[in-house]
Amino acid sequence: MGPGEIVCLLGSNGAGKTTLIRVVLGLLRPSGGEVWLFGRRVDGWMPHRIPRSGVGVVPEGRRLFPKMSVYENLLMGAHGRAAPAEVRARVEELSRRFPLLRERAGQPAGTLSGGEQAQVAIARALVGRPRLLILDEPSLGLSPRLCLEVFRLVREIHAAGTAVLLVEQNARQSLMVADRGYVLQKGQVVLAGTAADLRADPLVRRAYSLAEA
Ligand SMILES: Nc1ncnc2c1ncn2[C@@H]1O[C@H](COP(=O)(O)OP(=O)(O)OP(=O)(O)O)[C@@H](O)[C@H]1O
Ligand SMILES: [Mg+2]
Known about the structure:
Elements: E1 6-11, H1 17-24, E2 36-37, E3 40-41, H2 49-52, E4 55-58, H3 70-76, H4 84-97, H5 100-103, H6 114-126, E5 132-136, H7 144-159, E6 163-167, H8 171-177, E7 180-185, E8 188-194, H9 195-200, H10 202-207
The structure holds adenosine-5'-triphosphate and magnesium ion.
C-alpha cells in the first residue's frame, strides 16, 4: 500500500483475508514472503510492537471487551503507552466525531447495539492515531443504513490522512471507496487492480453480484 491509500481486500469465506491481517499484525508467522510497514521489515517482530508502530485495527467480530465500559474499551486502544491525560484528550477529540463515546462512556460495551459497537471498535482503533487503519469486515451484521454509515466513516478517516486496508464482504461499497483492491482465493492473489478495473472485471461482477451496478 502507498501512504494514504485505501486498499480493499476481497475474497470469499475462507479465502485467507483474516489470515493475511493476522500475519501483518505479527500474530501469525508467514510461511513465505515478508511484511514491511512504513519502510521497516516487521515480520518476526513481537506482536505488541506493531500497533505501536502506527497501526490501528478493527478485528474480525470487533472484539470489544463486553463487560468493560465504552471508556475502558477506548483506553485499551492506547495499548498502555500514552499518558492518561493524553488518552483523555484524544477520547474527547474522538467524541466530537462519535457523540456516543461521551453519551455512553460508562455503559458496558456488550450492551450496545451492533451499530454502536462498530463505532466503538473503530474509535478504539483510532485512539493511538494510526497511520494505517486495518478493518476486518467492519460492516458485518449491520443494516444497509448502518453499513453506509461505516463506509462514510472510512472515507472521513481516510480524508483526515490515514491509510486504510479494508476487508469487506460488501464489494460494491468497498470498491466505491477504495483506490485499489485485491481478490484472494485460497490464499493467493487472483486479481489486483484499481477499484475501477475490479468493478469492471467479469469475475468480480459475477462473484459479488455487481452485474447491475
Ligand atoms: N492456524 C491455522 N491452521 C490451519 N488452517 C487455518 C489456520 N488459520 C486459518 N486457517 C484456515 O485458512 C482459511 C482462511 O481463513 P481466514 O480466516 O483467513 O478466511 P477469511 O478470508 O477471513 O474468511 P471469512 O470471510 O469467512 O472471514 C480457512 O479455511 C481457515 O480455516
Ligand atoms: Mg475473515
